[in-house]
Write a structure and sequence with these properties.
Elements: H1 13-16, H2 19-28, E1 34-41, E2 44-55, E3 60-61, E4 68-69, H3 74-87, E5 108-114, E6 117-122, H4 129-133, H5 148-163, H6 169-177, H7 194-206, H8 210-222, E7 243-245, E8 253-255, E9 278-279, H9 281-292, E10 296-297, E11 300-301, H10 305-311, E12 328-330, E13 335-337, E14 352-355, E15 361-365, E16 370-376, H11 386-395
Antiparallel strand pairs: 1-2, 1-16, 2-3, 4-9, 5-6, 7-8, 10-11, 12-13, 13-14, 14-15, 15-16
Helix pairs in contact: 2-11, 3-7, 6-7
């Protein structure tokens, strides 16, 4: 990776030098094992810095080419895949998803939650494809321990996948079809399996397995050499361990996905478009740069500029926001910064971003022609404000 002098793209080298010590402090305090930070502006990489370790027990330093579980940073890639097919006329944004996946026709909606369970009603309309892109479908994820709907998700979907490693996209969609929607389609934002359903849509309308489509239409054209649904044996030495807090030993990091047991070191059946990919910092930069360029990279055009423009606009209904402070809306597959003054980190209006469960994060600032990528492996997400710190450190370094 070629790294230019920061001043050539309007960044201060002196100010960028503040990033490394802050990231190192997180490592020295035992909060994270290792971190990679990257900044690109105007198509050039001006900062790329690994700190810490990718394997504490083995004493392995964080490699520049380390492979990470990117979890929900898979979602923008899936969204791009679907938009490529929309451009080809395979479907329309407001088509009902049941026109392509009949399982999902006639779903019921929770009218109210009661002490005895849930009362259901008919949907006012069917879930459409736009609802899936924007997480307004009424589907859920199963993360809320107090919600009776999410209890059903854990029992009938997550439980099924944990017991049977051969569960695939068809099985997931069929299980979703048997569960009620949390709200009427299009009326509220609820983070969910919506993008996984988009992955199944990609299979249906393209006639190809989801992983094959991604490989042939996105990864190969963009030169994303290390991105996929699993880490092959010859690359396992580059696979960063995923850490979490050790409940028995406070202040100590615990390997929560040992390589010998990890589902990421062997082929998988469930090709999760919502959270299944692994990638590297450089690979994800190529994906981001394609979007910043209006859908093209190194002569390979994946999307038209107007399609990218549509994706990065806020699509949520008035009064419906993804985050509590109402700084962000949501586009087709990613966050959109709507109110800069309400955001916890600096940025520009229209900034498009998303992150992953292990604290990975990217953003694309179209106004500043700026890309920021943060890669690390630690769960739970958002326990520490490293994302906000990194974002502020990036923006304070802009001098032009």
């Amino acid at each position: 990776m070629h790294i230019i002098q920061p001043e050539a793209v309007g960044l201060s080298a002196e100010r960028l030098a503040r990033i490394g010590p802050v990231m190192q402090r997180y490592v020295d305090q035992g909060k994270f094992a290792g971190v990679i930070t990257l900044i690109a502006r105007r198509g050039q990489v001006a900062h790329f810095e690994p700190v810490g370790r990718m394997d504490i027990a083995q004493g392995k330093s964080m490699r520049p080419d380390a492979i990470f579980r990117i979890y929900s940073m898979t979602k923008p890639i899936t969204s791009v895949a679907a938009m490529m097919l929309l451009e080809e006329g395979a479907f329309r944004l407001y088509d009902p998803i049941s026109a392509y996946i009949p399982y999902l026709k006639g779903m019921k909606v929770i009218a109210r939650r009661t002490p005895d369970g849930m009362e259901l009603e008919d949907a006012h309309r069917e879930v459409n494809i736009h609802d899936l892109f924007t997480h307004t479908s009424g589907l859920s994820y199963g993360f809320d321990e107090l919600d009776p709907l999410d209890k059903l998700y854990r029992e009938q979907l997550w439980g099924k996948m944990e017991k049977n490693p051969r569960v695939g996209l068809d099985d997931m969609v069929e299980a979703l079809a048997g569960l009620p929607l949390s709200h009427q389609p299009g009326t509220a934002f609820r983070y969910s399996f919506s993008i996984d359903v988009l992955g199944k849509l990609v299979e249906v309308v393209s006639g190809k397995c989801f992983d094959q489509f991604l490989q042939e239409r996105i990864f190969d054209p963009l030169g994303m050499l290390d991105t996929g649904f699993w880490v092959p044996p010859e690359k396992v030495e580059r696979f960063a361990l995923n850490y979490g807090p050790d409940e028995k030993h406070p202040g100590i990091l615990k390997d929560i996905d040992p390589l010998k047991k990890s589902s990421y070191v062997k082929p998988v059946s469930f090709l999760s478009g919502g959270g299944g990919l692994v990638s590297t910092t450089e690979d994800y930069l190529r994906f981001c740069q394609m979007l910043l360029n209006g859908g093209e990279l190194d002569g390979q055009r994946l999307l038209g500029p107007k399609t990218v423009d549509l994706m990065r606009r806020n699509h949520l209904p008035d009064g419906v926001y993804e985050d509590a402070n109402k700084a962000y809306g949501f586009g087709l597959g990613g966050n959109v910064l709507v109110h800069v003054s309400r955001a916890p980190g600096m940025g520009s209006e229209g900034l498009w971003s998303w992150g992953g469960a292990a604290n990975t994060k990217f953003w694309i600032d179209f106004k500043e022609q700026l890309i920021g990528i943060l890669m690390l492996q630690y769960m739970p997400c958002n326990q520490y404000p490293i994302i906000d710190d990194f974002q502020n450190l990036v923006y304070q370094s802009l001098v032009d």
